[in-house]
Amino acid sequence: LNDESEAYIHDKHCNAIARVYSLSDAALIAAAPAMYEALTIALQIMIDKRVPYQHEIDQARAALAQAEGRG
């Protein structure tokens, strides 16, 4: 929080990259990189093991595409 009680997300160089309006939003934004990595790994495991969950694989692919700005 700054001195005006505004909350911002900062990158690793301390540059403000997003303003947030609630602590729960800030927590979700902060967790996004780890969630993205975990979903990428889980998707690759499902594909490699040829699990019979095509709907879930499609959902994971769609979520990753959305996170990458492709969907």
Tags for this model:
71 residues; two-stranded antiparallel ribbon; single chain; alpha+beta; 2 helices; 2 strands
Topology overview:
Elements: E1 7-10, E2 16-20, H1 23-48, H2 54-67
Helix pairs in contact: 1-2
Short summary:
By secondary structure, the protein is α+β, with helices and mostly antiparallel strands. The protein contains 2 helices and 2 strands. Helix content is 56%, strand content 13%.
Describe this structure as you would to a colleague:
There is one protein chain. The chain is of the alpha+beta class. Helices cover 56% and strands 13% of the residues. The chain has 2 helices and 2 strands, in the order E-E-H-H. It has a two-stranded antiparallel sheet with strand order 1-2. Helix 1 crosses helix 2. The longest helix is centred in the middle third of the chain and has 26 residues. The two termini are 33 Å apart. 0% of the residues are buried. The mean pLDDT is 90.
Distance between the termini: 33 Å
Strand content: 5-15%
Rough outline: elongated
Mean pLDDT across every amino acid position? 90
Note the main sheet.
2 strands, antiparallel
The low-pLDDT segments are none
List the strand order in the largest sheet: 1-2
Total count of strands:
2
What string, H for helix and E for strand, traces the elements in order? EEHH
Q: Briefly note the structural class of the backbone.
A: alpha+beta
Note the quaternary state here: single chain
Helical proportion, percent range: 55-70%
- Any idea what the radius of gyration is? 16 Å
Alpha plus pi helix count = 2
